[in-house]
């Protein structure tokens, strides 16, 4: 991997809460700061494309993501995305040939102590460097095929689905 393209779309990973977890805004992308703090040994470039909760990402946003990623020269792409509609976005991105794309996010904001954000980002970085071209989801310590995973909202985790 010569260089990693990171596309940020918002979601919980970048949320800033103003009270006990109800009034929020999607803030600046956190992934660049996280990777710099960790001293990663690869080059990366961040495109801050959207700042949306994934419940509000629509087909127009997904097409914008697809067109933006397809137009970039990098073949390795990490996408930060809200967890509620991550699977739907991954299915749209599957139309992009010859790129390894890994979507990840967080169930708790990166700004929160004990957030799963850094772990999920680390898992996604390892995955994007080692997988064949295609689209994948990195959550809860696993790499998932978007056609065979779902978010279990009640358990607040990703799990295998019938696909």
Automatic annotation (TrEMBL):
L-asparaginase N-terminal domain ranges (all copies): 4-159
Annotated signal sequence range: none
GO molecular function, one term: asparaginase activity
SUPFAM superfamilies: Glutaminase/Asparaginase (SSF53774)
Top-level taxon: Bacteria
UniProt key word Hydrolase: yes
Key word Phosphoprotein present: no
Alphabetical list of PROSITE patterns matching this protein: ASN_GLN_ASE_3 (PS51732)
Pfam families membership: Asparaginase
Name the record gives this protein: Asparaginase domain-containing protein
Species this protein is from: Lysobacter soyae
